[in-house]
Amino acid sequence: MISPTGNDPHPQRLPVGFTLLELMVVLLILTFLLGFSAPLFSRTFSQLKLEVFSYNIAKLLDYAGKRAVAYRNRVRVHFDAEHKQYWLLEAQESSPESEFQRIHDRPGRVYSVPDGIFLEPSTYEVTFYPDGRADRFQLMILDDRQTRYRLETNVWNGRISLFTLD
Question: Could you give the CA distance from residue 155 to residue 69 in angstroms, rounded to a whole number?
Fold first, then answer.
């Protein structure tokens, strides 16, 4: 029926919305994208966790060297690879006979190694001396994918070097 003005009061409308087939195709594409990106994200996250952990250990060793010089005491970092922990110790006197004791301020807390990261220290302790020297020490830090970092001390000046190994 045509209205008095000559227009059809019920014009033919085109269908509005998406068909079930179109929605299924979009969901399939999103599933593929998510399936490919999730492993990449996991790898990137574990790599970042290893980098940050290696940097934090290097900074703690650097702090131990600076504390030894500033307080004129021997400072030691002890690594317990079996329990995946490490902490700072300090001898109150610079004499070789003095005992090492735990540091009771914030840097002296027991640090834990994150899951999926493993330590292979050359020795279980590294000592920093008041004159700036340090014991010879090498620490291999690796993850499940065998990505490795090597951390070394310079015996003469106590500097810490961090290397990426491929």
Answer: 14
52 exposure class (CB count in 10 Å sphere: 0-12, 13-18, 19+): exposed
How far apart are alpha carbons 79 and 89 in whole angstroms?
Answer: 11
SS3 115: coil
In order of 81, 95, 153, the CA distances from 89 in angstroms are: 16, 15, 17
Q: pLDDT tens digit string along 52-93?
A: 999 999 999 999 999 999 999 999 999 998 899 999 999 977
| CATH class belonging to 20-165 | alpha beta
Note whether 147 and 47 are within 8 A (CB). Answer: yes
pLDDT in tens, 148-164: 999 999 999 989 999 98
Q: Which two tokens stand for residue 73?
A: 């005491």
- Phi first, then psi: give them for residue 32, nearest 5 degrees: -65, -45
Rounded-to-10 torsion of CA 59, 61, 66, 72: 160
